[in-house]
Amino acid sequence: MDEYLAALDAELRARFGSAPPEEVDTIYLGGGTPSRLGGEGVARALDLVRRHFVPAADAEITIEANPEDIDLAAASTWRGAGVNRLSIGAQSFDDRVLTWMHRTHDARGTATAVASARSAGITNLSLDLIFALPEALERDFARDAERILELQPDHISLYGLTIEPKTPLGRWVGQGLTVEQPEEGYEDDFLTAHRMLEAGAGFEHYEVSNYGLPGRRARHNSAYWSGVPYVGLGPAAHGFDGLVRRWNARHYAEWRDLAMTGADPVEGEELLTVENRVAEQVYLGMRSDAGLELFPEDLHVVQPWVDAGWSIVGPDGRLRCTPKGWLRLDALAAALTHHRSR
């Protein structure tokens, strides 16, 4: 922990020096498992950040946490350090499934973590749930959705399982040891969640993978999707200043060693081209309920999507995906990007 925090301090000094602190609307500790820093470690990390960035009076300060890292002592220390939102990696409430995922918590552990967080005064809670697991697991996804609702979270993030190469799961699929969920099953899980969370429990399905109760949308993530600048710190972190995207050294040891020499641990950067901007504008607009502003010349492209029930065009002239459209987001965004880039 001391080593990580020293490197984080060094990166902040290398990049921002003695410049006057800037005010920020959100701070998010994630992209890994920052809860492994414990109560004291997270508090110290936020102290380092505050030397260079001052949270606004109503700032949203979030930590991603595994259930097994959350107890009353840690959560109380986080709350005292300014944390007011937790994103908890529940993933499932079936202990067999959690074992298959190599998770180190069980279903009871998630409920205990939620209770500890609330007892510590952190009441804005988001829970992650994964869907589209291999059929051989015989997982009851609807029951998992019921269990997550029983905990009364403010926000739910829903992610479909993806098979990545060079991972244990990718190798299992390649060797025929497991079979990924067919597209029909993926769609059924996604639409089941949509019905249960939005129509049944009053959540707003405001982004392809995210549901929030009114007033509880994730402000930090919403900023990413609207294209505003953000600072990324730590190994593999990405940042964007409005024109240039940059990313840090990916591996921890490399990032640490560069930072500790006083160097900026950046690995690469790119100036967004006109084509990049078109693609991002389309994709980011279509992935949220804010929608995408349409041009008159776009209408013949999107009309078949409207006819198929994949999207709607509102009175404000903005294109919005339906849940069935979000299932086809990549293909639809690529088609409209191609049209606009010709």
Give your account of this protein's structure.
The structure is a single chain. This protein has helices at residues 2-16, 38-50, 72-80, 95-100, 107-119, 141-150, 168-174, 183-199, 219-226, 252-260, 274-286, 299-308, 323-326, 329-341; strands at 22-29, 53-65, 85-91, 124-131, 155-160, 204-207, 210-212, 238-240, 244-248, 266-271, 292-293, 311-313, 318-321. It has 342 residues and is α/β, with parallel strands linked by helices. Among the domains are: 66-225, Transcription Regulator spoIIAA; 274-341, Arc Repressor Mutant, subunit A (Orthogonal Bundle), CATH 1.10.10. A hairpin with a 4-residue loop joins β12 (311-313) and β13.
In terms of DSSP E residues, the strand content is 15-25%
User: How many DSSP E strands?
Assistant: 13
| Coarse shape | globular
The SSE string, one letter per element, is HEHEHEHHEHEHHEEHEEHEHEHEEHH
Mean pLDDT metric: 94
Biggest sheet overview: 7 strands, mixed
Features:
342 residues; Transcription Regulator spoIIAA; 43% helix
Describe how the helices and strands are arranged.
Blueprint: H1 2-16, E1 22-29, H2 38-50, E2 53-65, H3 72-80, E3 85-91, H4 95-100, H5 107-119, E4 124-131, H6 141-150, E5 155-160, H7 168-174, H8 183-199, E6 204-207, E7 210-212, H9 219-226, E8 238-240, E9 244-248, H10 252-260, E10 266-271, H11 274-286, E11 292-293, H12 299-308, E12 311-313, E13 318-321, H13 323-326, H14 329-341
Parallel strand pairs: 1-2, 2-3, 3-4, 4-5
Antiparallel strand pairs: 5-7, 6-7, 8-9, 9-10, 11-13, 12-13
Gist of the model:
By secondary structure, the protein is of the alpha/beta class.
